[in-house]
User: Which sequence fits this backbone?
């Protein structure tokens, strides 16, 4: 077996944090086996134009929306991974009580660092 020498070659091993994540997802879907268990996810991807064997070519408006969605998802992922999960008995989520209320023993995630526009 021969291993290529990649020393000195810059490489970015992080996942994309912008709309190019959907381009990567489209390439993955094109090369992945279409498992019947994934049919629901394939349907959701088809709604945004990612279909196995078809080129992924969103228009400018869709590209802007996908870019914003990927940036927001990246921020949510980071906020959720850095904030400790705290169990607060008999507490209510004060910031947005219409969206979520906590019950005793429920886990809370605080997104203090999330900045949406």
Assistant:
């Amino acid at each position: 077996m021969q291993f290529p020498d990649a020393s000195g070659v810059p490489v970015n091993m992080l996942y994309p944090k912008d709309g190019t994540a959907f381009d990567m997802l489209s390439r993955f879907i094109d090369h992945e086996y279409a498992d019947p268990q994934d049919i629901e996810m394939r349907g959701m991807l088809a709604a945004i134009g990612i279909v196995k064997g078809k080129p992924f070519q969103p228009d400018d408006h869709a590209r802007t929306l996908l870019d914003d969605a990927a940036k927001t998802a990246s921020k949510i992922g980071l906020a959720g991974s850095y904030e400790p999960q705290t169990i607060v008995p008999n507490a209510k989520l004060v910031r947005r009580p219409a969206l979520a209320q906590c019950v005793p023993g429920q886990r809370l995630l605080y997104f203090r660092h999330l900045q949406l526009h």
